[in-house]
């Protein structure tokens, strides 16, 4: 019968196990720090725009006077009073200058099709926030 001899040369086993433990500890700490750092990043903020409204008997104009620019495709305008509630999207706006953004100096005009009597509320909004709210004065 053949006898097996034990090799007593296992000096490198302990340092290799130690290095593997250190490496796994570092990877765990890096992943925990990365998750913590990503939680500190702020989310999307709401657009801030300064808008001035002017109106006539048949139209409402909204003037961009400062703040962020907004894609016109994201904008909606609601004109409502006690009896009517009208929603207007991009295809109804008259934008001057005719660009894809509502930016500084731009003019957005809406012609609702019904006369404005002076008790209407005008809302300019995106899917995330109301940007402007004003009343048509008689």
H/E topology pattern: HEEEEEEEEEE
Q: Given the helix and strand composition, which structural class is it? A: alpha+beta
Structural shape? rod-shaped
Measured distance between first and last alpha carbons: 113 Å
The number of domains: 2
The proportion of residues in beta strands is 25-35%
User: Largest sheet, described in full?
Assistant: 4 strands, antiparallel
Helix content: 10-25%
**Strand order in space, largest sheet:** 1-2-8-6
Number of helical runs? 1
CATH topology of the largest domain: Immunoglobulin-like
Poorly predicted runs: none
**Tally of extended strands?**
10
Assigned CATH architecture of the largest domain: Sandwich
Mean pLDDT: 87
**CATH classification, class level of the largest domain:** Mainly Beta
Evaluate the radius of gyration: 32 Å
Secondary structure elements and pairings:
Layout: H1 13-40, E1 49-55, E2 60-67, E3 70-71, E4 76-80, E5 85-88, E6 94-96, E7 101-102, E8 107-110, E9 121-125, E10 130-135
Antiparallel strand pairs: 1-2, 2-8, 3-7, 4-5, 4-9, 6-8, 9-10
What this model shows, in words?
This protein has 138 residues and is an alpha+beta fold. The protein folds into two domains: 13-43; 49-135, Immunoglobulin-like. It has one helix spanning 13-40, and strands at residues 49-55, 60-67, 70-71, 76-80, 85-88, 94-96, 101-102, 107-110, 121-125, 130-135. The strands form three sheets. It has a four-stranded antiparallel beta sheet with strand order 1-2-8-6, with no helix packed on it. It has a four-stranded antiparallel beta sheet with strand order 5-4-9-10, with no helix packed on it. It has a two-stranded antiparallel sheet with strand order 3-7. The radius of gyration is 32 Å and the shape is rod-shaped. It starts with 12 loop residues before the first helix and ends with a strand.
């Amino acid at each position: 019968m053949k006898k097996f001899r034990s090799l007593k040369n296992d000096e490198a086993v302990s340092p290799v196990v130690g290095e593997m433990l250190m490496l796994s500890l570092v990877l765990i700490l890096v992943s925990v720090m990365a998750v913590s750092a990503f939680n500190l990043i702020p989310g999307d903020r709401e657009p801030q725009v300064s808008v001035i409204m002017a109106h006539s008997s048949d139209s409402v104009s909204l003037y961009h006077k400062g703040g962020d620019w907004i894609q016109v495709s994201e904008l909606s305008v609601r004109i409502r009073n006690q009896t009517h509630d009208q929603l207007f999207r991009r295809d109804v706006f008259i934008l001057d200058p005719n660009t894809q953004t509502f930016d500084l100096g731009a003019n957005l005009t809406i012609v609702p099709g019904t006369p404005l009597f002076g008790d209407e509320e005008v809302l300019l909004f995106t899917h995330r926030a109301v940007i402007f709210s004003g009343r048509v004065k008689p």
